[in-house]
Amino acid sequence: MMRFATLMKHPADWMTGKGADNAVVLTSRIRLARNLANVPFPGWAKKGQRQEVLEELLPCVEALDCMKDGFSKPLESLSSVQKQVMVERHLISREHAARGEGSAVVIERRQSISVMINEEDHLRMQSIRPGLDLTAAYETLSEFDDEVAGAVEYAFDPALGYLTTCPTNLGTGMRASSMLHLPALVISDQIGQVLQAVNKIGLAVRGIFGEGTESLGNLFQISNQSTLGESEATILRRLERVIAQVAKHERNAREKLLEDDPDMVCDKIGRGYGVLKHAWIIDSKEALNHLSLLRLGGDLGFLPGETVALCDELLMEIQPAHLQVHNGSKLSPEERDAIRAEIIRSRLQTLQPPDIRFIKKTGGEDDTSPDLGIA
Fold first, then answer.
1. pLDDT, tens digit (0-9, with 9 covering 90-100), for 323-332
2. CA torsion angle for 255, 259, 265, 266 (degrees, to 10)?
């Protein structure tokens, strides 16, 4: 099995957008909640029962072909910093990181599939892919789910579907979400209208680390809220349609900003570049917001196209737990801010200033209405 140090060393394919258009939609994620039949769910289970579930599920998940040479650990054997690294990589939830004895995590080598055992449910399985690719992420995870179902019996009701700890997950037990980078909608003050329209059609909008977190670096998660009464295919079709519409509005907003006020766009990207290249102390929030502008500059042509992937790697590397693992010791907030600035300066060392010589009016589509066209 893979060691934690190896997991840290290699960014996942979805983190760097390998082989996908991820300029607006960074990632697509599918999560399935499942429980074993005739066993108390984790929140009601006694310590011994949780351990029995772990002993049944862990070898079953580890034995699957895709988990060969993967990472597998009981949570009690991981430090709080190691668990927080996995939260920052979106491989486990904050709730799972708070658990210890009787819980475990199994992660596929490329980090595109991860499994939480004894989180809120006995199994929380997820698949992540770069770009807008929810259907492919679901198909991958559905095959994985079928293999697990061949080895254990799930708690299932013909009328209610998969039984879960939280009633909002009943039915398919599926949560589908995409992470979007929406700086132009934020800069042009249209983000509120667009997100309100998304909420009105029954979808959830959250921050960078999911429920209860704020949007940093102009990153937003959009996901389904209902899981009962509709098929997985229906949920995915609607969600992909809405996310594609939001991405189109962001594209149009980027073009219109360049058309209407190119000097302002140049200024914002230039300031972000200047701060990141020369700051000696920088906190997470400020760093993420400036990296967002650099990422925008890479997409618009102010900076080389590979700047987008570089920013995506830095978005992960400068998180608090990643910094502490990188440094090999616990750090105070002040020490983290100094090391974060040092890492960013080092990674951006060869990045030339934004090129504004050939900025022209692009004549982008004047379509910035928040109407998502969803009945």
1. 999 888 889 9
2. 120
Output the DSSP codes for 172-193.
T-EEEEEEEE-HHHHHTT-HHH
316 near 11, Cβ under 8 Å? yes
Could you state, in order of their start, the residue ranges of all structural domains in the chain?
Answer: 1-14+31-171, 262-347
pLDDT of residue 364: 41
Class of domain 1-14+31-171: alpha beta
* Confidence label for 344 from pLDDT (cuts 50, 70 and 90): very high
96 marked ligand binding residue: no
Q: What is the pLDDT of residue 208?
A: 64
Residue 50 marked ligand-binding: no
Are 48 and 159 in contact by the 8 Å Cβ rule? The answer is no
Could you tell me the pTM of the whole model?
Answer: 0.90
Interacting residues of 372 by C-beta distance below 8 A, sequence separation 6+: 194, 197, 198, 201, 242, 245, 246
Spatial CA neighbour of 60 closest among 148, 190, 184, 171: 148
Residue 213 labelled as part of a binding site: no
292 residue type, one letter: S
Are the C-beta atoms of residues 74 and 88 closer than 8 Å to each other? no
Query: 90 a known binding residue?
Result: yes
142 is in an annotated binding site: no
Q: Is 27 annotated as a binding residue?
A: yes
Query: The tokens of 41 are what?
Result: 């769910």
Measured in whole angstroms, how far is the alpha carbon of residue 148 from the centre of its chain?
A: 24
Alpha carbons 195 and 215: distance in angstroms, whole number: 12
Give the whole-angstrom CA distance, residue 6 versus residue 109: 9
Alpha helices by DSSP H, listed for the chain, are 4-9, 47-62, 80-88, 94-97, 134-149, 183-187, 191-200, 232-260, 262-278, 284-300, 307-317, 320-327, 333-347
Residue 20, annotated as binding a ligand: no
Backbone phi, psi, residue 116, to 5°: -100, 125
**Rg value, the chain, Cα:** 21
- Is position 177 annotated in a ligand binding site? yes
Angstrom distance (rounded) from CA 210 to CA 221: 7
